[in-house]
Amino acid sequence: MTLTIQPRIARLPGRSLIMLDGADALRFLDGLVSGDLDPVEEGRARYGALLTPQGKILHDLIVAPADPAAGAERLLVECAAPLAGDLVKRLTLYKLRAKVTIRPATGLVVAVAFGSGAAAALSVDDAPGSVRATGGDVAEGGVLQVTDPRRAGLGVRLWGSDQAVADRAAAAGLASAEAADWDLWRIEARVPEGPADLPPEQGLALEHDLDRLNGVAFDKGCYVGQEVTTRSKFRGQVRKRLFVVDTADGARLPPPGTPVMAGERAAGDLRSSVGGTGIALLRIDRTDEAAAGSGPVLTADGITLAARPRGDD
């Protein structure tokens, strides 16, 4: 992560919460999503996705117990706000005889504290997936603080009522930030989030780095889309990956979905961006050729792009 900033907090109107209640809540959800949810039983948060049977991403999810001290019969699930209704509908279709109710978590908002020392400012464990409840139950004015399970140092999610989250941020001395500030922070870390980065039914889990972000379990039981996801890994069939890209002259990047070209050949397409920095899903071979100078440079709407090296993570 290349940015170093003081800890700040941003409301995320593009994110929403749903709630699962019932004795089968964890078992039910674990049988559907790509990540391993077993640690949720122990009061931790996990990341994963609901996939199509063909292995394409539908919803990216952060899952945590609503009350870490009370087991896993009541779960909060963070998802993309525009897709929350679809998520509730799809989970309900899978419910069958499972002892679980699925509903929007009305009245709760999502915020994120990020930057150097964000976890310390909130007095929470900085280990990914740590969960701490403050002020009581989230339904009664408490706040659930969730250290982002996707990678270390990414930030801390705060789930609760608007006022409770604001009070917690003030008590921690966190300055306010905009959602775009958070987007730049996670883009620099190459972390996709929501439909701008993970357009429904348009890409596979491994292409979008869910394996790198603790969002795919290769040793758990069956889940929807498991066969394609596992085959992609063990046959080495992942030909596209996410890259952080920058415009050569600082120009603003075009919108998500804009094709990226390597000369006359398609190389991928853009995802979310802030100014001249963004995420793109790109063919690995054509991106490597552009970086090495053995192939055409990458462009989007005529704007020259430079893809950063992915490193070893």
Automatic annotation (TrEMBL):
Keyword field: Transit peptide
Boundaries of every CAF17 C-terminal domain copy: 239-308
InterPro entries (UniProt xref): CAF17_C, TrmE/GcvT-like, YgfZ/GCV_T_CS, YgfZ/GcvT
Keyword Transit peptide listed: yes
Gene3D superfamilies assigned: Probable tRNA modification gtpase trme, domain 1 (3.30.1360.120)
Name of the protein in question: CAF17 C-terminal domain-containing protein
Species, as recorded: Tistrella arctica
